[in-house]
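lol forgot to send this yesterday, sorry. struct tokens for the thing we talked abt
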């Protein structure tokens, strides 16, 4: 099936609509003209975690004792919920890692206490 081409009139409207939208420079100039102080900076994106590159045949266990989580922004709470929902699962496979039940629920070491003399104060006066 052939794709229908946009008419020249529609293309011209789209170009004019894009030309009418203000640029960042226009917004900053308008803000300065109004007496506002404007600071513009680029915010770096979070570095993306390396994806797990394993074929399904290399996954641990078998389909009955592992769970797959497709979420890209999961937390420990999400992983805990998957383990609780599937009590026979020994592993949770995410896009980034394979989490083993015994290691996940193992007791975590307590944080080291800070000595009295080494505490930093925010206001030394």
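and heres what i got for the seq, position by position
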């Amino acid at each position: 099936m052939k794709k229908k081409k946009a008419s020249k009139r529609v293309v011209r409207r789209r170009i004019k609509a894009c030309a009418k939208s203000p640029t960042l420079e226009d917004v900053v100039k308008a803000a300065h003209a109004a007496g506002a102080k404007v600071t513009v900076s680029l915010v770096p994106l979070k570095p993306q975690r390396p994806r797990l590159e394993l074929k399904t045949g290399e996954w641990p266990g078998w389909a009955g004792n592992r769970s797959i989580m497709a979420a890209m922004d999961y937390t420990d709470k999400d992983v805990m919920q998957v383990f609780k929902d599937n009590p026979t699962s020994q592993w949770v496979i995410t896009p980034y890692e394979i989490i083993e039940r015994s290691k996940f629920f193992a007791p975590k070491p307590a944080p080291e206490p800070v000595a009295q003399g080494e505490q930093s104060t925010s206001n030394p006066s």
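The longest helix spans residues 8-20. anyway ping me if u want another try
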